[in-house]
Predict the structure.
Amino acid sequence: MRSTIRGVLSVAVVLALSCSLAGLVSAADTKLYDKGLAAYNAGDYKAAYTFTLPLASQGNPAAKNLLGMMYELGKGVPRDLARSVSYYREGAKQGDPHAQYNLAVSFDSGTGVPQNYREAVRWFRRAAEQGISAAQYDLGVMIERGRGTDKNFQKAADWYQKAAKQGHVQAQNNLAWLYEKGKGIERSLVTAYAWFDVAAAQGFESAQQKRDVIRAELTAVDLRKAQVESAQLKKTILQSSN
């Protein structure tokens, strides 16, 4: 069974911890943003707001994304979903990939804006093309389901693979499922086992269950091939994350 569940707010928090400094135009801006982000991560949201607001007012897209998350979550400010989306939209239009992703999530879930799957796909794609693994995964889900775009298993598999190679566990699980069923990609129980095993190694319980089911269907030779492929994938993914 595939898992395509996504926690909107928990994802936003993760992005806050790893938000890029793209768009910062001076050393002073970088220092101020660092202070705001450090305060946010430390739970001092009032200070985070104080540091971040001037940058956002000056047009900094990364700061706009951080403010958008603060308004979405009600951290340091009263929760205001419409204002959150406004900040995400501004940052997204300026090219910040995290703002693009958060705007896409807002459209997908109808949070602070009328639900619009086509707009969600548009912004997931923008963020995915800039390498955001969560966006690549979510774009794959949208394409696989035909939500806001034409259904296309091959394109979904391509996006899952990009995210999977970056260590996105749900993308690894979904890619394995496509390999198992031969949807959009040549059927291979060996490769399906390998990707399920990679996801299982990260604690994804349903992937572990699927891996064990497939294991029983493989010959001893194919099982060895699958284990070797899994080991190579784990090594590659680990190296790319370092």
